[in-house]
Amino acid sequence: MITKEELLKLAKEREDELIKLTSDLIKINSENPTGSQREIIDFVKKYLEDAGIEAQEVAANEKYPCVLAKIGSDEGYSIIINGHVDVVPAGDLTKWDFDPFGGEITDTQILGRGTSDMKAGVACAIFTMKLLKESKAQLKGNIRLHIVSDEETGGEFGTKWLCEQGYAKGADACLVAEPTSNSTIEIGQKGSNELVLKAYGVSAHGSLGNYKGDNAILKLSKVLQNIGRLHNVKGKFTEDQEEALSNSKLIAQEKLNHPGIENVIDRVTANVGIIKGGNKLNMVPDYCEAKVDVRLPIGVDTEELNREIENMIKDSNVEGVEYEADWKNFGNSTPINASIVQSLKKNAEEIWRIKVLPAYQWASSDARYYRELGIPTIQYGPSNTEGIHSYNENVDIEDVLNASKIYLMTFCDLLL
């Protein structure tokens, strides 16, 4: 029976193959929502089938197909590894120093749109499965692959749909290969929700605006001046979540480098992202609305949040302002002592020879859909965060190679 050491030696011998695979994925333009994922889904499916791994395509929407695959037995420990192949649009090509879909390989990096978010992670996932399949490793369980093509626009036809349809049923753990730093394992995150504030006024001719009518834009602006009050609402963390919370605050301080920004982890944040109001320049607007991106920390009390919103409106001393909010997405977490957390932490520290911290994320990702099903889920993947959703995105080759080794070692710990 093959050992972990023999598998690592095999991975070392085939590093060039993984680097080329990552580059090949980058060369396929899979922008979302402006492009198509057909070509890259076909590429992933063929790669798996060429490795002797049966792959199945499923879809809620034919424009956003998903690929499922499994190696190992039907019984025993079951791990899902998840990744998305869609990328955000490249944008203004004149702002790139290289072809975003060229997949250029330098001495130290792979360049292009989606290198970090998250085709390098996808490459590590399918490369690792191929190595395990070809090595004829006798797994005491199985690895199930979920590759989706709809994440960047919300995931309605991707991971969310897969989980709703029962494709994650029976899983004991999940690894999402989304980008993280090499020293951080994401084990929880905030929930993303939309708050809509609506102001109703009375229309009049614009030339009489100081005397007649009731300007809905001005009314709503008075409320929005106090939106920061929602930051007073804090999450509630259990005793066994305190270590990860402390790690998270430390990471936020180091990464974001702004006074007090560590509070983003355990407090509500509210960003006014869209304002719409008025019909014509010379009319007093009788309606205005604002859409606010509200992130909920773990353990938040939504009744407390609703009271804060109501008081914020009341204290603005305006009439005719309402709000709508359907709090569906909450802060979610995986226990820090879960076997997949501790195994990956041990292996990442062995490979990188640094301290690796399980922590919570201030944003959100597809990981939440698995956690909602009670599946211990972590996020760990190769990346250079500076270029994600921006220009000149890249990933370090060392990060890609090490991530694949860490995945391989973790699978061996849990399945061999």
Commentary on this structure:
This protein has eleven helices and 15 strands. By secondary structure, the chain is α/β, with parallel strands linked by helices. The protein folds into two domains: 4-189 and 331-415, Zn peptidases (Aminopeptidase, 3-Layer(aba) Sandwich), CATH 3.40.630.10; 191-245 and 264-325, Alpha-Beta Plaits (2-Layer Sandwich), CATH 3.30.70. The strands form four sheets. It has a six-stranded mixed sheet with strand order 1-2-5-3-6-14. It has a four-stranded antiparallel sheet with strand order 9-10-8-11. A hairpin with a 7-residue loop joins strand 1 and strand 2 (66-72). The longest helix is centred in the first third of the chain and has 20 residues, at 115-134. The N and C termini lie close together (9 Å).
Please indicate the count of domains.
2
Task: Estimate the strand proportion.
Answer: 15-25%
CATH level-3 fold name of the largest domain: Aminopeptidase
Could you state the CATH homologous superfamily of the largest domain?
Zn peptidases
Secondary structure: helix percent: 25-40%
Count the helices. How many? 11
Terminal Cα span: 9 Å
Report the order of strands and helices.
HHHEEEEHEHEEEHHEEHEEHEHEEH
- So, CATH architecture of the largest domain? 3-Layer(aba) Sandwich
Shape: globular
Overall SS class:
alpha/beta
**Average pLDDT value?**
96
CATH class of the largest domain: Alpha Beta
Query: pLDDT under 50 segments (min length 5)?
Result: none
Q: Walk across the major sheet and give the strand order.
A: 1-2-5-3-6-14
Instruction: Give the number of DSSP strands.
Output: 15
* Main beta-sheet annotation: 6 strands, mixed
The radius of gyration is: 24 Å
